[in-house]
Sequence to fold (275 residues):
Amino acid sequence: MILKNGSKGEDVKKLQAKLGLGADGVFGPGTEAAVKKWQAANGLTADGIVGEGTWTKMFGEKQLITEPSTPIVNAGPLKLENLKGHIPDAVIAQIPDAAKKFNITNPLRLAHFLAQCGHESAGFKAVQENLNYSADGLKKIFPKYFPGNLAEGYARNPEKIASKVYGGRMGNGDETTKEGFKFRGRGYIQLTGKDNYTRFAKFIGEDTVSNPDLVATKYPLASAAFFFDSNKLWDICDKGADDATVTAVTKRVNGGTIGLADRIKHFKEYFGLLK
Fold:
C-alpha cells in the first residue's frame, strides 16, 4: 500500500506528525507538498507519494502501511471506477499518474493500452520476463543464438540465457558483463535493454539503471506507457475501435499477432466500460 493525495487514516496522522503538520489524518495538498520537500531534502524522488522506501527512511523501520485501499482518482475524462472488478485495483491506482505523464488522454487510448498490457502480462500478473527455457525451447525461440548443441549448456539458466541473447545489443555490454540479464524485460510490456532503462530513468526521475527491479515493482504500468508514448503508438490507437486498429497496435507491441483474439476481446471489454 502507499500513502498519497486522498489517503486517510492513522498512518497519515503519523506521517503528518513527523512532518510537523497538523495531524488530521487526511492526506491533502499541504501534506503532499511537505512530503515532496522532505523527499527532496533526503535524496529521494520528490513525487509526494509515500511508499515503503520513503516510509523506511523517514521512520527507520519497515512497516506495512495500513490504508485499507488506494482511492481511485479519475484522470480527466477516464471513468476509472468502471474498471473495478475487471482489472486489479493496484493497476487502476497507477493509471492517473501514467495517463498524465504519457498522454493517455481519452478512453480509446486507455482501452487499447490496457488490452495490450493485460495480455502481455498474463492478466497483469507477470512483471518480469520468464527466461527459464529448456534446450528445445531455446532452439525454437532463439535459433540464431543457439546453433547445434549450444543450448544444452544454457537450458534452465535464465541468467546465462539473457546474458547471451541480450548481450552486446540494446546498450548492453557483451555476454560476460551479464547486463543482458540485469536489463531483461520488466514491466507489463517488458522494458528491455540498458538503453531503454536509461531513457526511462531520465524521464521518470528515478535511477532504474542502478536499480532495474524498480521497473517491475514500482513502474510496471508507467514503463509500458513509456513504450507506447516513445513509439508513437497513440497515433495508431487514435484510428479507431475496430479489430483492424487492435491488430495494428498488436503488431507494434508483439511483433506479430500472437494472442490477437484475447487482445480484441479485452479491448472491447475495457472500451465498453470506459466510453
